[in-house]
Amino acid sequence: MGKITSMLGLLLTHPAEFRTLVQFYLFHEQKRDITAQQEHPTSGWDRPTMRCCWDFLDMTSRSFSAVIKELDGDLARTICIYYLVLRGLDTIEDDMTIPDEIKQPLLRSFHDKTVTPGWSFTDSGPNEKDRQLLVEYSAVVGEVNLLAPEYKEIILNICAKMEVGMADYAHKAATAGLVYLETVAEYDLYCHYVAGLVGEGLTRIWSASGKEAPWLCEELELANSMGLLLQKTNIIRDFREDVEERRFFWPKEIWAKYGFEEMKDLYEKGDVEHATWIQSGMILDALRHACDALDYLRLLKTQSVFVFCAVPVCMAMATLSLCFMNPEMFRRNIKIRKAEAAKLIMQATNTREVALIFRDYARKIHNKAKPQDPNFLRVSVMCCKIEQWYEQNYPSFVIVGDNGVTYDPSDKRTAVVRIEEKRAMQNNLGDSSRSEPEMFPWELATYVVGAFVLVFGLSAGVVYTILKVYGDE
Predict the structure, then answer these.
(1) b vs e for 267-295, b when ≥16 Cβ sit within 10 Å of the residue's Cβ?
(2) Quick one: the chain helix, strand, coil %, rounded to 5?
(3) What is the pLDDT, as a whole number, of residue 247?
(4) Which site in 10, 27, 47, 342 is 20 to 30 Å from 388, CA atoms measured?
């Protein structure tokens, strides 16, 4: 009843969004039903432990759950387990009620505990939202041990790397009190540990599955940028919630300006103008990963893998656009509207469409930029880089439609293409259509004799003229 009421309200207040949601619910059906009998061998739905894992996936992240379930074959089950393992690790790191002397060995040995039959953790804080995942973690452990060896090795390797970074930051926070990240380099390293490594693991799983090229697992820099774009977007959006829970992720190199001494000053002092300048600096830092994300997506060939990777980064660009120069972000958590999310899910089906989404949001960010902001020029350059990436790879004057490829007649580049096409057509006609008829030997001799007579005559005329002129003198 509540959903019907909200939809009716949306029809009256935002009819365009209502139309988008209706289209989404009617035409964008989930392609795969993991509960179906024929899917049991790959989804594991016939096992109670795996059903428990699917339930936890729905509980911890509905947005990721939908795209994970549409992955082909056993990839869906593998990524589900991978997500829950890292979610469990992250839950322990975020739990401020666990003493450091308990948290440290727990974090640093989490990859071992993940394969220890029957292991679970019941000492999380009562208000920790994902507490139940750790209470019933033995179900995850059982499923990890059933994974193919190549998948299991990757998941445990990424977990072992991630837990070291998390443990180091958690220990620093516990022993030094309020801890801020000082530099952007520190910020990048933290985001690498908590998100860049996730991208690395996913990329290695794509290659190991055979769904993507074997060499894709070597593109770790691009995979890291994918993770950093998503993580930095979440950190920007969740500013108010993190500060209130005493989690400080914004680097002081960016925010410790204009008289701000603590992060809470950004909303307590009421200096909205300078706060939004700092906000633009954080968003500028996140945008530098956008072109790498597009380069990564261009390498993917499997549709379900592409959609899994493309939808979150499109949501991230929409969120950055929403947060840019928006003081409301300092007062509460803000999110893109459901209709906008639905539109992005329906549109993010290929690299060209995703690049178009990136370009459109980059334009929105640029339109909101203010010249008095010290970051104005750098924001403009970064937005232009996204625009340039789109134009280089998918020129806007090229129109792809049902009737094939056409060109925008109003664009000057179309005239250049027409000239090049005409020139190529002439070159392709072949020498036979343009060459002179083959000459016989006597014809060649005639041309040679004629040329000789012509040259001799001209030479004689020149000599005669010279003698005539100088002879008269």
Answers:
(1) beeebeebbbbbbbbbbbbbbebbbbbbb
(2) 70, 0, 25
(3) 82
(4) 342
**Helices 149-176 and 75-94: crossing angle, nearest 10°?**
10
CB 152 within 8 A of CB 85: no
pLDDT at residue 396 in the model: 83
Q: What is the pLDDT of residues 305-360, one digit of tens each?
A: 999 999 999 999 999 999 999 999 999 888 888 888 888 888 899 999 999 999 99
Of the residues 237, 239, 296, 390, only one is catalytic, namely 237
Tens of pLDDT, residues 59-75: 887 667 888 988 988 99
Task: Determine the distance from the C-alpha atom of residue 263 to the mean position of all C-alpha atoms in its chain, rounded to a whole number.
Answer: 28
Q: How far is CA 213 from CA 125, 216, 291, 306, in A?
A: 43, 5, 21, 13
Better-predicted residue by pLDDT, 450 or 55 = 55
Q: 225 vs 269, 414, 464, CA distance in Å?
A: 34, 35, 83
- Stated pTM of the model: 0.83
How far apart CA 27 and CA 49 sit, in angstroms, is 32
Active site residue 470: no
Q: Whole-angstrom Cα distance, residue 401 to residue 40?
A: 40
pLDDT at 170: 86
Given phi > 0 = left and psi -120 to 50 = alpha, else beta, which region is 72?
Answer: beta
* Neighbouring-strand partners of residue 398: 407
* 56, 137, 190, 324: the active-site residue: 190
CB 204 within 8 A of CB 305: no
Catalytic residue among 108, 247, 352, 363: 247
CA distance 244 to 300: 39
Indicate if 394 belongs to the active site: no
Q: In which region does residue 369 sit, left (phi positive, over 0), alpha (psi from -120 to 50) or beta (all else)?
A: beta
Is 378 in the active site? no
Q: Decide if 375 contacts 50 (C-beta within 8 A).
A: no
CA 17 distance to own-chain centroid? 25
| Predicted local distance difference test score (pLDDT) of residue 471 | 57
* Residue 18 among the catalytic residues: no
Q: Catalytic: which of 110, 193, 248, 308?
A: 308
Residue entry with tokens 């890291």: 224
